[in-house]
Amino acid sequence: MKLTFIGGGNMAIAILGGLLQRGYQGQDILVVEPDAEKRADLQAQWGVHVAEPGTPLPASELIVLAVKPQQLRQVAEALAPQLGKALVISIAAGIKLETLSRWLGNYARVIRVMPNTPALVQAGISGALASPGASAADRELAAEILHSVGDLVWVEKESELDGITAISGSGPAYVFYFMEALQAAARAQGFNPEVARKLAYQTFAGAIKLALGSEDDAETLRQKVTSKGGTTERAINALETSQVRATIIAAASAAAARSRELGEELGRDPQE
User: Fold this and answer.
1) Strand pairing of 3-6 and 87-90?
2) Phi, then psi, of 248 in degrees rounded to 5
3) pTM assigned to the model
4) Is 33 exposed, middle or buried (0-12, 13-18, 19+ CB in 10 A)?
5) Is 212 exposed, middle or buried (0-12, 13-18, 19+ CB in 10 A)?
6) Checking CA distances to 171, which of 70, 114, 115, 258 falls within 20 to 30 Å?
7) Is residue 12 a contact partner of residue 64, using CB atoms and an 8 Å limit?
8) Counting Cβ atoms within 10 Å, is residue 100 exposed (0-12), middle (13-18) or buried (19+)?
9) In angstroms, rounded to a whole number, what is the distance separating the alpha carbons of residues 73 and 190?
């Protein structure tokens, strides 16, 4: 199967690496990338074909649009005459399926995907929405590609993909933010930076491993750690008093709203 990636950034590289680990061949993959140094690195490291933008594309079964949302319109309109019969997957945040299809000349076989950065270590979670013109075989192909970098959740409405963007797309940043805070708390207790980092990171790693291996939900797991009258209860009470839970929910809502705004802003025709 021939695959083309438009854009050679981190997420494209993550998917590419996952595919090669699953047995795909570099000689069957083309990456279109404007940066000459990055093209050379991609070719040397992964054994893929590379090309600069504007180069006529070979026939492909799958085209992955891995460019920034602000660049997608120009890329899609230039790509439209060269689509052939390829399935198109877009990983650009916010750009609606209807908008992308229109930019591609009302092309029907389009799937919109929101991955997240743990895809870089094959531990991602992606949300995907298929256009009405995408077949069951198209969905299977998209799932095969996305499972190369982690798990996958299908949604049926565009608004749900905005929610995916808010929870798992932006979510790693929330986790890193909390890790920063826990590391700062360790420093405040007198630990040096190295020990503070180790305490914070391994606490997260262990808690996630415990949660993934347990049938209990997060609330039950928290309650099991929280003895009445103990140290953890005092800490949780402080978090509740500061409304940390409500703030996290509000933050995710703000991210979802921005995803919707991006879709509206970038999807408008110039004359609008």
Assistant:
1) unpaired
2) -65, -45
3) 0.88
4) buried
5) exposed
6) 70
7) yes
8) buried
9) 52
Separation of alpha carbons 49 and 12, rounded Å: 14
Amino acid at 81: P
Residue type, 160: E
Residue of 148 and 268 predicted with greater confidence: 148
Beta strands (DSSP E) in the chain are 3-6, 29-32, 49-51, 62-65, 87-90, 110-114, 124-130, 150-154
pLDDT in tens, 47-78: 999 999 989 998 999 999 999 989 999 999 99
Using DSSP's 3-state secondary structure scheme, residue 32 falls into: strand
Q: Which two tokens stand for residue 176?
A: 């890193």
1.10.3730.10, 2.30.180.10, 3.40.50.1220, 1.10.10.60: which CATH number matches 171-256?
1.10.3730.10
> What distance, in Å, lies between the first and last C-alpha atoms of the chain?
40
Strand 49-51: give its sheet, edge to edge: 49-51, 29-32, 3-6, 62-65, 87-90, 110-114, 124-130, 150-154
Q: How many residues are given for the chain? A: 272
Chain segment 83-128, per-residue pLDDT in tens = 989 999 999 888 999 999 999 999 999 999 999 999 989 999 999 9
Q: How far apart are CA 165 and CA 123, in angstroms?
A: 16
| Tokens 């660049």, residue located | 71
Domain boundaries, the chain: 3-158, 171-256
Q: Over 60: is that where the pLDDT of 272 sits?
A: no
Which of 143, 155, 161 shows the shortest CA–CA distance to 93?
161
